[in-house]
């Protein structure tokens, strides 16, 4: 279901369900690791667990990721981001402004401070 605001269309929305005990450690490295309910036991401690939801459209450079009230421009999209997000709820968001997708499962975002995430935080992709 696409939701429209004045100047963007939401193509994806999910919510953080739980936070692994070591998940916030990656934030210092400008990375946020998301995984749905099927995260392997060895990875759960390092992930922000999300509800797996469908994507209404294609994730592309120039779109934005919104985390609660903060927005980040997408600078590069790994070739497995779309599939992994739909199938597993699993991607890494890297907040370093890279314009080349070096890792297939990584969504690259502009280099801005990552907001404080908590259970219930909303993550959206908007075009």
UniProtKB/TrEMBL annotation:
PROSITE patterns (UniProt xref): PTS_EIIA_TYPE_5
Pfam name, any one: PTSIIA_gutA
GO cellular component: cytoplasm
One GO process term, biological-process aspect: phosphoenolpyruvate-dependent sugar phosphotransferase system
SUPFAM superfamilies, per the entry: PTSIIA/GutA-like (SSF141530)
GO molecular function terms attached to this record: kinase activity; protein-N(PI)-phosphohistidine-sugar phosphotransferase activity
PANTHER family the record matches: PTS SYSTEM GLUCITOL/SORBITOL-SPECIFIC EIIA COMPONENT (PTHR40398), PTS SYSTEM GLUCITOL_SORBITOL-SPECIFIC EIIA COMPONENT (PTHR40398:SF1)
Protein name: PTS sorbitol transporter subunit IIA
